[in-house]
Write a structure and sequence with these properties.
The complex is a heterodimer of chains A (110) and B (115). With 110 residues, chain A is mainly β. In chain A, 0% of the residues lie in helices and 54% in strands. In chain A, strands 2, 4, 5, 9, 10 and 11 form a six-stranded mixed sheet that branches. Chain A has a five-stranded antiparallel sheet with strand order 1-3-8-7-6, with no helix packed on it. In chain A, a hairpin with a 2-residue loop joins strand 6 (55-58) and strand 7 (61-65). Chain B contains no helices and eleven strands. In chain B, strands 2, 4, 5, 6, 9, 10 and 11 form a seven-stranded mixed sheet that branches. Chain B has a four-stranded antiparallel sheet with strand order 1-3-8-7, with no helix packed on it. Classes of the chains: A mainly beta (110), B mainly beta (115).
């Protein structure tokens, strides 16, 4: 069974600080997606990374896929209250299935 | 962009009732759809893979007779929670990949509350 360990599960920081969320696994994934989920809604895709070592930037968010395609990180620079939410990493497996990490509940305090 | 619509968004019903949840791909065809369950403050857990024109594939520990899945067309999959009980209360979410090389797009979820 493929597992994704996401950390930290809870993070509360002040506006303007930087943070990094990690997803780690002993398994290789064909792709790695990062989603953001608001209460009462479905996850919304932020980014997909597919190549080992790949780095993608989305404004203040930087996503990286590990060289061996077993881990990924999400770094947010100068966090803002609008970044508050549940962030989920998900690894792509065969047959289009996704394996989700436990999620990181991020709170940015003004 | 690809849109997945889920209905209803919220259901409150008595114990013993069967509840049907619909998942539609609005602007693309989906031969495969996925059903997830999410308990409060937890991540998404895959329940089953819905396959158009054939039987669904259930994950380990998910009762196929409890959670009936029908995927009768390329744009619609339904999940029926049969004889629902309070422990079935959860947030149910469906997803579909527009094609084999694209990430999944998720519906907005259905909040099921069994009294």
């Amino acid at each position: 069974t493929q597992l994704l360990e996401q950390s930290p599960q809870f993070l509360s920081i002040q506006e303007g600080e930087n943070l990094t969320v990690y997803c780690n696994s002993s398994s290789v994934f064909s792709s790695l997606q990062w989603y953001r989920q608001e209460p009462g809604e479905g996850p919304v895709l932020l980014v997909t990374v597919v190549t080992g070592g790949e780095v993608k930037k989305l404004k203040r968010l930087t996503f990286q896929f590990g060289d061996a395609r077993k881990d990924s990180s999400l770094h947010i620079t100068a966090a803002q209250p609008g970044d508050t939410g549940l962030y989920l990493c998900a690894g792509g497996t065969g047959a289009q299935k996704l394996v989700f990490g436990q999620g990181t509940r991020l709170t940015i305090n003004p | 962009g690809a849109v997945v619509s889920q209905h209803p968004s919220r259901v409150i019903c008595k114990s013993g009732t069967s509840v049907k949840i619909e998942c539609r791909s609005l602007d693309f065809q989906a031969t495969t759809m996925f059903w997830y369950r999410q308990f409060p403050k937890q991540s998404l857990m895959l329940m089953a893979t819905s396959n158009e024109g054939s039987k669904a594939t259930y994950e380990q520990g998910v009762e196929k007779d409890k959670f009936l899945i029908n995927h009768a067309s390329l744009t619609l999959s339904t999940l029926t929670v049969t004889s629902a009980h309070p422990e079935d209360s959860s947030f149910y979410i469906c997803s579909a990949p527009p094609d084999g090389n694209q990430p999944q797009h998720f519906g907005d979820g259905t909040r099921l509350s069994i009294l």
